[in-house]
Task: structure prediction
Amino acid sequence: MRARGANMTDVVVLVVAADDGVMPQTREHAQILDLLSIDRGCIAITKSDLVPAARIDEVLEQIAELVENLTLRDFPVVAVSGTTGAGLDELRETLKSCADQVPGRGMTGVFRMAIDRVFIIRGRGTVVTGSVLSGQVQAGDALELMPPGLPVRVRELQTHGRESGPVGRGQRAALNLTGMKHEQVRRGHELATPGFLQPSQYVDASIRLLADAAKPLASHTTVRLCVGTTETLARVVLFGADDMAPGGSAPAQLRPRVPIVTQHGQRFILRHETASHTIGGGIVLRTASTRTAARLRDNLAGLGALQSDGPAERLAEAFRRVGFAERSDMQLACRAGLDPTDVAALQQELTKAGVLVNLPGIKRELHAAALEDLRDQAQHFLKRWHGRHPSEPGFPAARFVHWVARRAMPGNTKGQKEVGKPLYEHLLKAGTMRVQGTYVCHPEFAPALSGEDQSMLDELLRRYRKSAFQPPTVSELRKELGRSFPRAERMINYALSQEQLVRVDSEILLHAEVHEQLRQTVRELIVSQGPATVAQIRQALGSTRKFVVPICEHLDRIGFTRRSGDTRTLP
Result:
């Protein structure tokens, strides 16, 4: 019996020859069926006509001992003879009874078929065969070949050598495909409803080591992973442990040599690297993970949620893990082990419970824990920034918007543009940081100015207050101060954040008191004389056109005045 291709089997027959009894391969076959959690089927004792009745009793005792702690323990046992026909009718009836107990072989749902054979038929092209794992397929359907991710179409199909209409779960199928080259498809690939499966080289799972394993399984051991019809070498990385004792189970990450596709709840087999024997197996919990050992407690809690019998809990974890990225109901269903048609109702349930939230400007629900995690990261980042720059007023707000966007959606430039500003506004509203002018800082942060910094700040403020509407430009300060300008620039930024200075443009700054005087003077001028020209405003301020033109444009930008031709009015 091959482990690959055995999962998602509904009914099995475990064969034990009466003359040989339970052999080592029989034991391995039974263990594989147990690891795959197959609990419907029967055990057939063959060649019953070749041995005396006492031998049948001995074999029955061997079988009882073999299956005592396995999912096969309740399998009926039937002694048969291919020569005399004895027991065959009973075997057929037993199998029919087992098949009748299989739940819902419906023709609906997501289609999946693991490919076990590929060949070419002259005049037809590429044909693939396999067992339909779920859903249905018919001629003309558009599918996705995974892991390559190639769109294909079914030209025609057969089942058991005959042309067929829709083929559904549990049936063998031969599909004639178009849309790809013959060399692009191989055994181990899968056909699926587009958008459902996601290739990954990091799959989180719960694994179990056989009780009769020769030695403990050390973390980072290379094994042979059998899942679907795929067989590939993979590394097993245990979470929070260096090894696992025989008979034990633990959460772990599978790191196959090549990308594979799985869905939540799918079973797999682990064999020795040389494929000489089976060592264990497990169940997929997270179909697409990341290569990280950080935040172990958070990861284990998430895997615990994915093992829940509650579909809402599993969906919530899928939302949490996907974070701020775009996702479809199909992808969430695959990650949570759900039918895609059930996702919307469960999503509403989670939103009502406050697990999922909506933010203005973002078109999809977000997990509340993902937002909380982002808030923690933002505060940690600001604390580190303040530690390195204690005299600066904070981190530039415009840059912080980009930091938030990159943290939320790393590597997705388009997505970053969508979520950056809404997430920034959410963090601000939640009290994650506070704004100081054009900067943001940790709520508990207060800039620590040295004596020299304070002296320079006092001198700059005195100079800007005294110069009124003809202040020194930034370029003039840079030329005047030379090597001292960087410190002066820091103090200017600090004063801007504390609203002691007001920026008119990139070159011109006004003292806050002067800026208030500006507003009062211009208001009185327009109220008393009507619409004012630049020349009238210049005369009222006692300044020059060099300063008054940018000052008037500044007043327009902040909405204090409204330009109409060559004059300004109050809005």
